[in-house]
Amino acid sequence: MARLADDEDHLLRSLSELSYCNPFEPVRIDAERAVLRDAHQPEALDSWSRTADGARTERPNIVAINELAAGLVERLYERQQVEGSLEGDEATLYDDLVTYTLYYRHVATLEAELVYPAAGDARIKRVWREYRKERERLLAPLADNERSRLSTSEHLFACLHQVRRAFDGIYHCLIGESAPATRLRAAVWQSIFTHDLRRYRRSLFGRMRELATLVTGPSGAGKELVAQAIGRSQYRPFDPEAESFVGEGDAFIALNLSALSPTLVESELFGHRKGAFTGATSDRVGWLERCPPHGAVFLDEIGDVDPSIQVKLLRVAQSRDYSRLGESESRSFAAKLVAATNRDLAAEMRAGRFREDLYYRLCSDQVVVPSLGEQLADQPAAIAGLVRFLVGRVLRDSEPAEAEALAEEVGDWITGRMPPSYEWPGNIRELEQCVRSVLVRREYHPTEVGAARTKRPTWLDDAERGQLSADELLNAYCRQVYGQQGGYEPAARVLGLDRRTVKSRVDSSD
Fold this sequence. Notes:
GO terms for molecular function: ATP binding. By secondary structure, the protein is an alpha/beta fold. It contains 24 helices and 13 strands.
């Protein structure tokens, strides 16, 4: 049996911990420090540097760790051929070392467009063959009983590719240098892999899609970006015979439920049979049926959905079954369900507008998106990185130097002109429009928006003085809700009235 020196044992165990830690949590820094010891270079948790076009560059600590890992794996490989195989816990740690080394040597080098590859992509085949050949070589010295309890090459390749997709999605979708932004990235990683990546690799990889995720937070804070990062990072099996991932490319389907009537929501989600309602001239396949198992359906503004639809969504969340509109045949939903709302669902449940049983089917995995105000309160200087990213999005085809210069100019204007106490009520969405306004006009006027938001309606003063009839009061309130919701249908749902009643109240002249 091969023997490990004390320093090799320490390095092997430290690399094993690093391989399975959440890369967005402080434990990752501790694990890297344990590997490198005195050679570790101090850096912040969010220390991955970005170029002007948003590309990621490798960190010095990771470069140094990869060199150590590559040297150690070859030494242990050679020693086992002479002294005999590693056994038990040490064999497992050696497998972790091989996994870590091959991830950075092969999977992490995949081009961005191969994060969601089409079936049969020649570059995926090449990487797979190189990865499999090297893994088989490095694991060959292990005894047969040790190799038999390890993951197959194709399953591990699928897991490593998922790690690559997840990190890429979180890194590119969820920007920000504050502690709240860092915690958000760590929470999204857990939504994908749970808190225990080892257990996920062993048994949970095929079950996480069955757990719904609820994303909450203020309007404009980036809830859909969180949903994208989760939805586009689902496990995809790898078929070693076809040498490709099962299923085709990206499969993230987003629906804004508040923008559709209840009938259209049913038709879009569940599909319908010909003749199910007026205008249903042919059968329709719904998005739940179209979404492949490795994808996700994102239900935005679920807090605004009609109670009749909530009942049907409860069935999907609870048993993953549904039926097309106008038929009784039961169908199965195979993908991930992600929902989001900016509403206070506790208040909505108390008011009877949101079903408690649906909430308790969604809340097992909940991600809370911080407001921009929270992020800047923690780290005011973080606005510079956000502005740089948003300018880069506008000028994505420009020279990097030009984008950097403009980002600095816009950032200086915003930090010099906007009050430090400004809370950015529109969150990232508002900041993006501010950036665009400064680029175009070199000005931004948020006070008008704030004044419009906080101005007290005159009819409330009249009501407090007892100067309105019941009809006038209801008409005024209906108009206000209609203005907030942007349509008769969503206003009717909030008010608990028929759509025609709301329309007549809004259109009345008192």
